[in-house]
Write a structure and sequence with these properties.
Blueprint: H1 3-17, H2 21-34, H3 39-52, H4 55-68, H5 73-85, H6 89-110, H7 119-138, H8 142-155, H9 160-172, H10 176-189, H11 194-206, H12 210-223, H13 228-239
Helix pairs in contact: 1-2, 2-3, 3-4, 3-5, 4-5, 5-6, 5-7, 6-7, 7-8, 8-9, 9-10, 9-11, 10-11, 11-12, 12-13
Length: 241
């Protein structure tokens, strides 16, 4: 980058960091006129468009950044978020899968055998799979949600939220035994995570196992006295003949 572009980048970045996005935008656009493939600037322009509410323009900028640098995880995740907001779920799934593969390949190339994916990157990718799974569930697509939640769990095996969501989606598809297994694992990883207890109780209840449902909700109520859902379901169960 020549001195003029460096100066434009420095000025634009300073304004961007201060939250003065409208003022930063012209600097970045001038850079792109000279360097259309500058991934970091494309990503910043995408963020500016996203914050302005122009999701389609944001997605185009993010897509250009990712095309230039497939290993640019931040731009990939930003593209996933924008695609989710645009309800382009298949595109979001494709992008995040490519991002994960690119990062794994990069890590494998520079790390000794057996070294896991960087925890920060894995966490970011897991969160996006979780977010995408939630979007599928909101649209009644439990099968697609299960695939995303499983990817999140593979990246963060001890995440009680991901396992609980996976259990709920499995239950939605009538896969009760698998749902119970995932919800039980969620409890094991974090015994203080209330939603896992509540959802496991509901799964038992839907299977007609009222005794086991009572055990979960009572256990949750004793362990977490402020968990209102546990008290509600216990009362519901006790009031039934």
């Amino acid at each position: 980058m020549d001195s003029v572009l460096k100066e434009l980048y420095a000025q634009g970045s300073a304004l961007f960091e201060e939250g003065k996005y409208d003022e930063a935008e012209p600097y970045f656009k001038d850079i792109i006129k000279a360097r259309p493939d500058y991934a970091d600037v494309l990503n910043k322009l995408g963020l500016i468009s996203y914050l302005r509410g122009d999701l389609k323009e944001a997605a185009l900028y993010f897509e250009r950044a990712v095309k230039k640098n497939p290993e640019y995880t931040e731009a990939s995740l930003n593209l996933v978020i924008a695609s989710n907001d645009l309800e382009e779920f298949e595109k979001a799934e494709e992008v995040i899968t490519k991002a994960a593969n690119a990062v794994y390949s990069s890590e494998a190339a520079k790390a000794p055998a057996g070294v896991p994916l960087d925890p920060y990157v894995a966490g970011r990718l897991a969160n996006e799979h979780l977010r995408l799974g939630n979007a599928y569930m909101e649209h009644g697509l439990a099968g697609e949600a299960i695939e995303e939640y499983r990817k999140a769990v593979r990246l963060r095996e001890t995440s009680p939220d991901a396992r609980t969501r996976l259990g709920m989606a499995l239950r939605e598809k009538g896969m009760f035994d698998e749902a119970i297994a995932e919800l039980t694992r969620a409890k094991e990883h974090n015994p203080g995570y209330g939603p896992a207890w509540i959802q496991l109780g509901l799964t038992y209840y839907m299977r007609g196992m009222r005794g086991l449902a009572f055990r979960e909700w009572e256990g949750a109520s004793q362990r977490m006295p402020d968990l209102k859902e546990a008290r509600f379901y216990l009362k519901l169960l006790k009031d039934q003949p």
